[in-house]
Amino acid sequence: MKSEILRKATREFNRYRAPECRVKTVKNSDDELVVKFEGTGANFYCCYDENFVDFLYYLKDHSGRAYRIQDVKETRPGVFVVVYRPDEE
Q1: For the chain, what percentages of helix, strand and coil (3-state, to nearest 5) are there?
Q2: Computed from CA positions of residues 20, 25, 26, 32, in that sequence, does the dihedral angle turn out positive or negative?
Q3: I want to staple 83 with a disulfide (CB 3.0 to 4.6 A). Which of 20, 26, 40, 71 is the partner?
């Protein structure tokens, strides 16, 4: 994904979710996007994965491309690393 597109999606997400949940890019390549979610509310919304799923919509809105969640790992309490991949429908 182009860096400027990812930056816009990340900034918009953080504008509405921080400080309870912030997102930061760990890796950005054509076939994989790795993002870190952290904060006191990273997993305390109505569903465990709500922030991770909501970020999919930010990605699609800004890039015009659908993504899917490949993997979610809690690296320490309140910190999650999520791997997104382009959805090849």
Answers
A1: 35, 35, 35
A2: positive
A3: 71
pTM > 0.85: yes or no: yes
Domain parsing of the chain, residue ranges? 3-86
The confidence band for 78, taking pLDDT boundaries of 50, 70 and 90, is confident
Query: What whole-number distance in Å separates Cα of residue 61 and Cα of residue 58?
Result: 5
Residue in this structure with the two tokens 């993997």, named with its chain if needed? 71
pLDDT(79) > 80: yes
Per-residue pLDDT tens over the stretch 31-54? 999 999 998 765 555 566 889 999
